[in-house]
Design brief:
197 residues; alpha+beta; six-stranded antiparallel sheet; two-stranded antiparallel ribbon; 5 helices; 25% helix; globular
């Protein structure tokens, strides 16, 4: 899929995301792709700890959002929230990385920020996203991708994002999530301070 077509799909998905506020739950993962809810405060497995460490190391420079922007990340979707599930925050997406279809802990397709009351954006995590058809074609019979042992969630199409079916893995590397480090929604993230810039 070309970057232009992918960017157009992302742009068209903004309308679908407006509906996010009326959708009580996040999009359910397909059977076999869900992850059990587990408190992040519990001890992580060595693989989970290694993934969190790798994401922190590779995204620390993005604590300054201008660095992310200089490296090709741009805000899409506004601030993603759900009334019953908390929020995902502001997604700064690198369309070149999305279109590459490559999963690499040091190169997340998306970096996630929370808008703070004083106006600054706080880095809270990363999101790895690949278009399902591209992944499945390049990896026949392998199923959902994994990153250092973490299975990606599958979002079917049609979906409220207006995207083709995709695989995604959120990594809450910079803000502890009581529901687990690798779940889609963060109950302690808020979009209240987002001004819509």
């Amino acid at each position: 899929m070309s970057i232009g077509r992918l960017a157009k799909r992302f742009q068209h998905s903004v309308t679908a995301l407006v509906l996010l506020g009326t959708c009580p739950l996040g999009v359910a993962a397909q059977a076999g792709h869900s992850h059990p809810t587990r408190a992040q405060a519990q001890e992580l497995t060595p693989a989970e700890g290694a993934l969190l460490k790798a994401v922190r190391e590779s995204t620390e420079r993005f604590k300054d959002v201008s660095v992310a922007e200089r490296e090709g990340y741009a805000l899409l979707f506004g601030c993603v929230s759900g009334p019953d599930s908390g929020a995902m925050g502001l997604h700064f997406v690198n369309l070149n990385l999305v279109s590459s279809g490559v999963i690499d802990a040091s190169r997340p397709q998306i970096v996630i920020y929370e808008p703070m009351p004083d106006g600054h954006l706080q880095l809270i995590g990363a999101d790895f996203l690949v278009i399902a058809s591209d992944w499945d074609k390049a990896h026949p019979g392998q199923g959902a991708p994994q990153l250092m042992g973490q299975l990606f969630h599958y979002f079917e199409s049609p979906n409220r994002f207006g995207l083709p079916a995709f695989y995604t893995l959120h990594v809450w590397a910079w803000k502890e999530n009581p529901n687990g480090a690798f779940v889609n929604w963060h109950p302690n993230v808020s979009c209240q301070a987002f001004s819509g810039q």
